[in-house]
Amino acid sequence: MPKIVASISVVPIGTSGTSVSHYVSRAISVVEKMGIHYRVGAGFTDLELDDYRQLASLMEAIEAELAEMGVARVDFFVKVDRRLDADLTIDGKVSKVKVSTKASDH
């Protein structure tokens, strides 16, 4: 089971327009090729990872893919939630918040 949930945002810089959805779609295709479980959000994509090496490999692969599209610079924004004592999943994190929210609704 994964022990890291990382939230990642990939920002190509120096593109010809303001839309980046086709770059994001290409980055997601890299995630899929690597067999990583993910969930796309409005600004970040959540990933379930086994270790930091997997995150680094993914970032390198995304960078290479975007370079093939003509992108000369890429900013990555990454947030990592690391558990040393238990497995960690996207669904588990979300469900805990939903349970907590229901408990506080009175």
From TrEMBL:
Entry superkingdom: Archaea
One Pfam family here: Thiamine_BP
InterPro entries with a match to the protein in the record: MTH1187/YkoF-like, Thiamine_BP, UPF0045_domain
Residues in Thiamine-binding protein domain copies: 6-98
Any one GO cellular component localisation term in the record: cytosol
Record family assignment: Belongs to the UPF0045 family.
NCBIfam families: MTH1187 family thiamine-binding protein
PANTHER family, per database record: UPF0045 PROTEIN ECM15
Protein name: Thiamine-binding protein domain-containing protein
